């Protein structure tokens, strides 16, 4: 018996979101966390897909997660069933901290409303307009100078995150930060820590909704 076709299942999933795709049997409390290598979750999920196909369900503690693997599955989901996958799941720890509010940590209709407001506000501040283009070109100049300063030597790729972050800060605060500015570096570090937390499946065990 072959693996299930991703496109057929995604269309079925769109008709009834309660019918989740098959996946490994979850254990009490931890779900399928025992199957995941926390340092390389991608490899663990790809291994599971070999048995259950490109679309399957895993349980991260108390939360069910539909996993898409492979180009065709992701393409089909984003193009043909985008209305099913346009929302974002609630992150339990941030739900307890912010009660579901905010641009990054809200979900469902509140997230959609906040996202529309944020995009409209960013456009008013210059995103997507001539001012935004000027900010990007200005920041590109500083990024090129930073790369040249290494004189062909190795450097950490995290430096590349500084440019887009600085463009956003310039639109919001009216000025850019120097790449050595301690406040700027602290903000980047805090953003990295938040993203690291978001990628930790243990949050779904420690903070059930």
TrEMBL record:
Entry's localization field: Endoplasmic reticulum membrane; Microsome membrane
A single Gene Ontology biological process assigned to it is: xenobiotic metabolic process
**What are the protein's UniProt keywords?**
Endoplasmic reticulum, Heme, Iron, Membrane, Metal-binding, Microsome, Monooxygenase, Oxidoreductase
GO-annotated molecular function:
heme binding; iron ion binding; oxidoreductase activity, acting on paired donors, with incorporation or reduction of molecular oxygen, reduced flavin or flavoprotein as one donor, and incorporation of one atom of oxygen
Keyword flag Metal-binding: yes
Query: Which SUPFAM superfamilies does the protein's record reference?
Result: Cytochrome P450
Its record classes its membrane topology as: Peripheral membrane protein
Q: Which cofactor does it need?
A: heme
- Matches recorded under InterPro entries: Cyt_P450, Cyt_P450_E_grp-I, Cyt_P450_sf, Cytochrome_P450_fam2
Q: What is its main location?
A: endoplasmic reticulum
Annotated Gene3D superfamilies: Cytochrome P450
What top-level branch of life does the organism fall under?
Eukaryota
Family, per entry: Belongs to the cytochrome P450 family.
Q: What is this protein called?
A: Cytochrome P450 family 2 subfamily W member 1
């Amino acid at each position: 018996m072959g693996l299930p076709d991703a496109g057929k299942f995604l269309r079925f999933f769109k008709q009834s979101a309660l019918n989740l795709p098959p996946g490994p049997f979850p254990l009490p409390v931890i779900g399928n966390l025992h199957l995941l290598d926390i340092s390389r979750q991608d490899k663990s999920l790809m291994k599971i897909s070999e048995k259950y196909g490109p679309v399957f369900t895993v349980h991260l503690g108390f939360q069910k997660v539909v996993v898409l693997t492979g180009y065709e599955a992701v393409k089909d989901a984003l193009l043909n069933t985008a209305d099913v996958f346009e929302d974002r799941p609630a992150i339990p720890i941030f739900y307890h901290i912010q009660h579901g509010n905010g641009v990054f940590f809200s979900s469902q209709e509140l997230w959609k409303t906040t996202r529309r407001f944020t995009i409209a506000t960013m456009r008013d501040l210059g995103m997507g307009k001539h001012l935004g283009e000027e900010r990007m070109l200005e920041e590109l100049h500083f990024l090129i100078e930073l790369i040249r300063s290494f004189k062909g030597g190795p450097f950490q790729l995290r430096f590349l995150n500084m440019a887009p972050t600085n463009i956003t800060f310039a639109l919001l605060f009216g000025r850019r930060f120097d790449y050595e500015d301690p406040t700027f570096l602290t903000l980047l570090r805090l953003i990295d820590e938040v993203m690291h937390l978001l990628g930790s499946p243990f949050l779904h065990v420690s903070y059930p909704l």
